[in-house]
Every structure is written in C-alpha cells, then in structure tokens.
Amino acid sequence: MKMITAFFALILIPLVVSTSYAKTLVFSEEFSGPLNYSTDCWDDIPDGSKWCVRDQIGGTGGSLGIGSCAMSANVTVENGMAVITMRKETQVCEGVSHQWTSGELNTAFRFGFTHGYVEARIKVPSGRGLYSAFWTYPKGWYAQVPEHDIFEAPLGDNPVFMTYHYNYGGERQMDQSEVTIPNFTDWHVWSLTWEPGLLIYKCDGVEYKRIEGATIPKTDELVGVFFTMYAGANWFNEYPDASTNLPQSMYIDWVRVWDSDMVQRVVPSPPSQVKILK
Predict the structure, then answer these.
(1) Domain count, the chain
(2) Contact 188, 181 (CB under 8 A)
(3) Residue 265 lies in a domain
(4) 269 assigned to some structural domain
(5) pLDDT at residue number 43
(6) Between the CA of residue 202 and those of 21, 76, 96, 179, 192, what are the distances in Å?
(7) CATH of the domain at 157
(8) Is the pLDDT of residue 273 over 90?
(9) What's the pLDDT at 22?
(10) What confidence tens digit (pLDDT) does each residue in 21-73 have?
(11) pTM for this predicted structure
(12) The domain containing residue 249 runs over which residues?
C-alpha cells in the first residue's frame, strides 16, 4: 500500500509546489502507527493529540449524520490506513436513539491552515445511506465558514458534490457542483488548491471545479481537516435500508497539507450560546 502511496506522491508533489501558496509541507499523516487522538473536540488547550475522534455525538439537527451516532470505536488504524466504519446497531447519544453508528476524524482545535493545498487518498463504499465526505471546517468551531467540501457523497454513490461555503456581502453563500467520478469505489486522490481569489477541486489530478474571484478573500479563517462517514442526511432523506450491506468502511491511506501562509495560534472557545450542528 505504501509503495503505491509513494508513486502518487511523486506525481502530485511537483504540481503542489508549483502553486504560489503551497510551498511548505505543514501537516501529514500516513497512519503508519497508532492514532494519536482525543475524544475532546472542544479543547482549546493543547493536549498533545494530533486528531480528534468524536465519540457519542449525533443529535437531531444539521444537514448530515442525523441517522447515526459517531463513536470512537468506529475509527481505527489498520494496515497503514485509517478506517471509519458504519454499523447497524442501536445507540443512544445526546438523548437520541440511533439505528446506526459511524465515525468522524478531524483536527479541530489542533491543526489549521489558510490558503495552500490539501490532498488525501481515500476509498469509500457505495450503498444507500452511506454518506462519506472529505472536507475542511474552521479549526475552532466558532466560525461556520469558510467550509470547503472537497467531496461529499450523500447518496452513497455518484453524483459527488464539491462545495464552497462562504460569507459574501454580509450573507452566507454557497457555490456547489455535482460531478460524476469514474469508478466511484476505487482508490482516489482528492485535492483542493486554495489561494486568494482561486479554488480548484480535483480528483486523481483531474480538475472538476474551479472558482475564481473576490469570494475567495486574501485572509480567512484557519480550517481543519475532516473525514466523516455517516448514515444518511436531511439533504436527500436517504438512509440505509435492506439493500445496504453493513458494516461498511471508508479508508484513508494518507492526508497532506502544504501551506506558505501557515499560522498556528490558540483559537478561543466558542461562545456558550453557539450551537454547532455538524
């Protein structure tokens, strides 16, 4: 597996360093050993963990994941890969009974970047209600944009959605595209180039979405890296059914971030009245 990884790195790294902002590798995870994580995703005091794995999280609001409860037991490292698994099992979390359990892996309050290049090699399953995603979200949770959805597969198959959520003109905006990915369940390298005035979304080096203009500002919030697999979503009201074979897993071989504007700083805790929906 890692020999294949090296092959992809040799192809993609020259592309990365040629961009004006993506010059320094500032974050990488090869999943070659035990996962260094905490289940406290709200901790703005560094605890030495590299990742947050959400545990017993799953309410009734938000656009995704309401059908399942995110459990830390469903995020593992096996054979040099992170594995996020969804299972058919009843679990009560946040006072709500769920029919399925799933998982989320993120760098909330641990790592953030603004402008640069991020890529990950991922394999996802297909099936009704198997909602997998690779995305970024503000590192400290308190801001809700920018959000870069490098890919979301809410239907458990094509079409895949690539989306930029942002503020412009004082209002929350969204620029979204539906794309079809050949051989959906194969291994794919997903990437985002993020520069002032430019966003480029790619899969296996093929450009699928480009946004240019003033909606991508010169300065922005630090964002963290997120991998999720959930059961269904409000978005399409699609949930696993008898046709969905469970358990199913999302595999992450590696993730890397390049950035020349990297700024690490302590992010203040969100105000107590702010409700985070995802």
Answers:
(1) 1
(2) yes
(3) no
(4) no
(5) 73
(6) 17, 27, 37, 11, 6
(7) 2.60.120.200
(8) no
(9) 55
(10) 557 899 999 999 999 999 988 877 778 999 999 999 885 544 455 689 999 99
(11) 0.85
(12) 2-258
235 lies in some domain: yes
Rounding to the nearest 10 degrees, give the CA dihedral for residues 274, 265, 166, 57: -40
> What does the longest C-alpha to C-alpha distance in the chain come to?
50
Residue 267: inside a domain, yes or no?
Answer: no
- For the stretch 103-112, pLDDT in tens is 999 999 999 9
Contact assessment for residue 65 and residue 58, using Cβ atoms and an 8 Å cutoff: yes
- What is the rounded distance in angstroms from the CA atom of residue 72 to the CA atom of residue 146? 26
